[in-house]
C-alpha cells in the first residue's frame, strides 16, 4: 500500500471552471449544471510559447497552474502528466497531412505531437528541471497517473504534480475513439507525513477490472465521458472533506483500491 | 508504508531485444563485437528520398497468437518477436510462479505505439469516405495502452501497468519507473522497457525538422548529418537481486531531469543532461570515475551530439570512453533507452567498449573521449543516456556492484 497526502487541486470540465469555482458543486452543496468550460490562457507561458501551444496543452496548463497556486516554488515539483489521447488535434492534422502526394509536415506540429508536449511546455513555463513523466492509459489513464505520482512521492520523497487531461479528438479519429468533452484534473501530492494536507490517500493496486457503475447523478454521468473525468469520485470526496473508499481503474488488468482520509 | 526505500540495485533477471540486427540478444552481441551495422537504404513505403533506416527483419512472421489477433500492428509484432526471443516469456512465467501474476508489473515506453495502423486506416478508406474503416481497432493498436495491454495479455499478468511516452526517453524512463514501483512495494518484478516501430509520422516528421541523415547515421563525426531512424523492442525483467539468478547484471541507478528550455532543441550547454547523469550516479551511490563507459544518446544530429559532448565532458572530462551505438541499430526513439540498457549490460559482460561505427575521427570540437574503434577492457559499470523532445532526459547505470 502507498500512502501520500493531497495538497493543491484543480478541475476543468463541463460546468466545472476551476477548483475555486467548483468546490461547492463537487461537495454537493451547490447543484451542478451543464455549461461549457472556458479555459483561461496559460499566463505562465511566454507569448511565443503561448502561440505554439494548442488547446490540449492550454487545458493541461490551466489545471497545473491552479493546483500549484499555493506552492512556494512551482519549479520544485516533479510532474506526472497523464492523458489517454494526447493532442488529438495535432495528431489528426498530421495524419491528414501524411495522406498528400507531396508530404510536408509542419515541424512545429511534429514536435507538438509528442505525448509529453504538455509536460514540456509546463517545465518551460515554470523553469523547472525536475523529472517529468508522461503517461497514457486509455480509460485508466487517471488511475495509472495517480499510482505513478503517489509512488514517486513515496520513493523520491518530494512534491509531485499530477495533471490528467484529455480533449475530444477531431474526426475521423473521434469516431474510432470518442471523448465527449474536455476535462482536466490536477493534484499536488506529497509524502504521507507532509504537513498542511487536505487529505491522506492510501492506494493499493489489485488485479481485476472495475465494472462500470450506474451513475448516481448528472455529475457522476460525466465520469465515462473523458478519461480524466474518472478523477471525479476522488475530487468529490476531497471537496466534501469526506472519508471515502473508492475503486479506480488503473490499467488493462488492474485497479486501485483507494481510501481518502480527510485531514 | 511510510518512509523511503531505496530502489537500488535491481537485477536484470532476463532481457530480450529485437533490432535491425535481428531478433534476440545474440545477433546484437555478435554485431557489436564484429562491427556490423543493421542499417540499410530505406524500404519502408514512402520514406523520404535517400534516407536509411534500421528496419527489423521478420515482422511478417510475428503475428500475435489467434486469441490476440485484434492487437495486430507493427508495434505489437515487434513486442511479439521480443517475447519469443531469449527465453524471455519463460523467464516471466518463472517470475509469476515466484511472486504471483498480480505482483508482476508492466512498465513500458513507446513514442508512437501502433500509430502506423492508423496511417494505414486513413489510406484504406474508399474514395469519399471520411470515417476510418470499421475494422480499425484504435484501442488495441494506436492507443498507447495497447502495448502494455498486449504484454499483459500475452504473459498472463495482472499487476499494475504503466505506459510511458516521453518521446525518445520513453524506454529509459520506463526502466526508472519500474524501479519506483518495486521500491514503493506495489510490485516484486517488472517487465520494463520500450517498443517503437517505423511509421510515416516519425520518418516525415524528422524529415520536416531536417534532422535525417542522407545515408547511414554517423554519430560524433565532425561531418555528421543527422539521425537514421530505426525500430526496436527491448524488454528487461527487473527484480530484487535476491530473487534473480545469481550473477545477473544489475541496474544500479537511474536519474531523470527536464530541460525546461525548448520543445525540440536541447539546452545548448546540456544542463538537463548533466543533472540527469548526476542524479543517476547519485542514486547508484558512485562517483563519475567509477563509470567505465558512457553509452551516449548520440543521435547523430549536430545539436544533440555537441550538447552531449559538453555535458559528458563536464562530468567525466576526457577520462571515460564514450560512444553511440546508433550506427548499429539506428535511433529507435522510444525503444532506444531500453535496447541501450541491454547493450550496456552486454558491454559489461563482454568487457567491450564499442567505438562509433563509420567514424574515422570524432568531431575535432569534441572534448570527451569518443571511441571510434572497439576496445576490449574490463568494465564494471556503464552509464547510458537518453534525451528527448519536450526536454526530457534520463540516464541509467548498469553493471556490477
TrEMBL record, chain A:
Pfam families: Ketoacyl-synt_2. Residues 35-204 form the Beta-ketoacyl synthase-like N-terminal domain. It comes from the Bacteria. InterPro entries: Ketoacyl_synth_N (IPR014030), Thiolase-like (IPR016039). This is Beta-ketoacyl synthase chain length factor. The lineage of its organism: Bacteria, Pseudomonadati, Pseudomonadota, Alphaproteobacteria, Acetobacterales.
UniProtKB/TrEMBL annotation, chain B:
InterPro entries: Beta-ketoacyl_synthase, Ketoacyl_synth_AS, Ketoacyl_synth_C, Ketoacyl_synth_N, PKS_Beta-ketoAc_synthase_dom, Thiolase-like. Pfam families: ketoacyl-synt (PF00109), Ketoacyl-synt_C (PF02801). Its EC number is 2.3.1.179. The keyword Endoplasmic reticulum does not apply. CDD domains: KAS_I_II. It comes from the Bacteria. One of its GO terms (molecular function) is 3-oxoacyl-[acyl-carrier-protein] synthase activity. It is an enzyme of class 2 (transferase). Residues 1-400 form the Ketosynthase family 3 (KS3) domain. Keywords: Acyltransferase, Transferase. The keyword Acyltransferase applies. PANTHER family: BETA-KETOACYL SYNTHASE, POLYKETIDE SYNTHASE-RELATED. Belongs to the thiolase-like superfamily. Beta-ketoacyl-ACP synthases family. NCBIfam families: PRK09185.1. This is Beta-ketoacyl-ACP synthase.
